[in-house]
Hints:
CATH topology: Thiol Ester Dehydrase, Chain A
Oligomer: single chain
Structural class: alpha+beta
Number of helices: 7
Number of strands: 6
Helix content: 25-40%
Strand order of the largest sheet: 1-2-4
Amino acid sequence: MRLLKHAGESWYTRAFRFGMNCYPMYFGTGGRIKYIAADWREVRLSLGLNPFTYNYVGTIFGGAMFAANDPFLMVMLMNVMGKDKYVVWDKAAKIRFRKPGKSKLSMQIKLDEELIDEIKATIATEHRWTRWLTLQWKDKNGDVVAELERELYVADKAWYKQRRLSRKEETASAKTP
């Protein structure tokens, strides 16, 4: 039974999960990474009510909900798209609280083939893709406690580097009298 818990993870994603769960900046959020698929298309997170997440009114601190899922869409897309071909950035984020988090929360993040195909098709014609994606923290009953929206940016790496170089040259020429 214990083996099934990690079915679908690779040694690399298991090691990454372990390292992130121990990393002080992530550990401090109170969140825990439960699973990372070998192909990086699925991540499962949990967030409990504990001394790291407890707020003044006895529910899960909204900042913990916000921070505990912070890097995952970006990291997942980097690994799925390929770090050597694409640049991936988080551009913006917002959160909407639906109800107080009084019990352990969970989040499942999935990247489907349709989204990956859309990103690649857009980049093929426009060199970059930007879109808001929605994530949800759910309680033990499956009720949505908080919705997070994250704006992701993905660009062709060669195009991105050229664009940055052009901008630096423009800035340098504007400063030169």
